[in-house]
């Protein structure tokens, strides 16, 4: 009997010893700074960094006093041990102050949030709303995904109208620094396609003609409206910045302020929002009154 049990005894002992030999003691360690903490040059230009006169680590950047107050308000929304979760809004604030998300801006955000710089670089290079290079006064972002390709005249016609009027292609800036042109993915205004985003405002229901009219209005207002593609009223530094909603109201009409034509955002076709431009096609009868329903309900 003992001889039959012997294999099981030895097998169990071996399994225990083998399990015990796998035990490991782990301790908390701090990783030293390595080469990955620097932006690496890769195949795609928006995800890489090459030092330039306007974008290098030697250019000083500090948030203004008012923006530091905004940062304090943002950080109050997160537990102290998770303040790095505020990286996206603070990067946006830095871009609005500086005009684009430079290396100095990212390094300052990393310092404030006590994050490895590489973690901030990863966020800034992943999301396309962070401009890694300087942009013009008006940043034209044309959507070319399926709804805008198929809606109305189609985004191809809008792209051609912009290229023809400004003489630039996606990824380029006009010589006068007024316009930067970008081709982007869906901006979420599919029902009013085709559309473009200009700085923070949406212009929808576009045609080649209304697009050129819009560009001409922006050119005419360039000296009157103090703004850049990366700045806005949020920072408080640009006292004269006016959004489209401030300077004009009314369904895509071209309004006048101080004699300068300024476009207002929204549908350029006369629609107020996304209602059917041809009128009601359903629910056209008179709404039911309370007399139709049981009065005891």
UniProtKB/TrEMBL annotation:
Statement: the UniProt record of this protein carries the keyword Hydrolase: no
Region (Disordered): 226-271
CDD domains, A to Z: TRX_Fd_NuoE
Gene Ontology MF, one: oxidoreductase activity
InterPro entries named in the record: NuoE-like (IPR002023), NuoE_dom (IPR042128), NuoE_N (IPR041921), Thioredoxin-like_sf (IPR036249)
Keyword Iron-sulfur (UniProt): yes
Cofactor: [2Fe-2S] cluster
GO cellular component, one term: mitochondrial inner membrane
Keyword tags: 2Fe-2S, Iron, Iron-sulfur, Metal-binding, NAD, Translocase, Ubiquinone
One BP term from GO: mitochondrial electron transport, NADH to ubiquinone
SUPFAM superfamilies documented for this protein: Thioredoxin-like
Pfam families assigned: 2Fe-2S_thioredx (PF01257)
Stated family: Belongs to the complex I 24 kDa subunit family.
Protein's recorded name: NADH-ubiquinone oxidoreductase 24 kDa subunit, mitochondrial
Organism of derivation: Lachnellula subtilissima
């Amino acid at each position: 009997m003992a001889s039959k049990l012997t294999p099981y005894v030895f097998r169990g002992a071996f399994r225990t010893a083998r399990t015990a030999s796998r035990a490991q003691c782990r301790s908390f360690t701090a990783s030293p700074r390595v080469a990955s903490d620097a932006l690496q040059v890769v195949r795609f230009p928006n995800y890489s960094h090459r030092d330039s006169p306007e974008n290098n680590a030697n250019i000083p950047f500090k948030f203004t006093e008012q923006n530091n107050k905004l940062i304090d308000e943002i950080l109050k929304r997160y537990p102290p041990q998770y303040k790095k979760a505020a990286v996206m809004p603070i990067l946006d604030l830095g871009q609005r102050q500086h005009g684009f998300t430079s290396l100095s801006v990212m390094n300052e955000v990393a310092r404030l949030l006590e994050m490895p710089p590489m973690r901030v670089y990863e966020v800034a290079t992943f999301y396309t709303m962070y401009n890694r290079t300087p942009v013009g006064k008006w940043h034209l972002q044309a959507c070319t995904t399926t709804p805008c390709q198929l809606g109305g005249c189609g985004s191809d016609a809008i792209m051609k109208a912009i290229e023809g009027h400004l003489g630039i292609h996606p990824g380029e800036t006009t010589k006068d620094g007024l316009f930067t042109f970008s081709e982007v993915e869906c901006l979420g205004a599919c029902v009013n396609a085709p559309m473009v985003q200009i700085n923070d405002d949406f212009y929808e229901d576009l045609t080649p003609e209304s697009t050129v009219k819009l560009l001409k209005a922006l050119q005419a207002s360039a000296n009157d409206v103090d703004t850049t593609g990366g700045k806005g009223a949020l920072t408080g530094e640009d006292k004269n910045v006016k959004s489209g909603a401030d300077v004009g109201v009314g369904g895509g009409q071209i309004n006048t302020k101080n004699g300068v034509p300024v476009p207002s955002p929204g549908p350029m076709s006369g629609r107020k929002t996304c209602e059917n431009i041809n009128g009601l096609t359903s629910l056209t009868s008179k709404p039911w009154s309370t007399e139709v329903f049981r009065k005891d309900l």
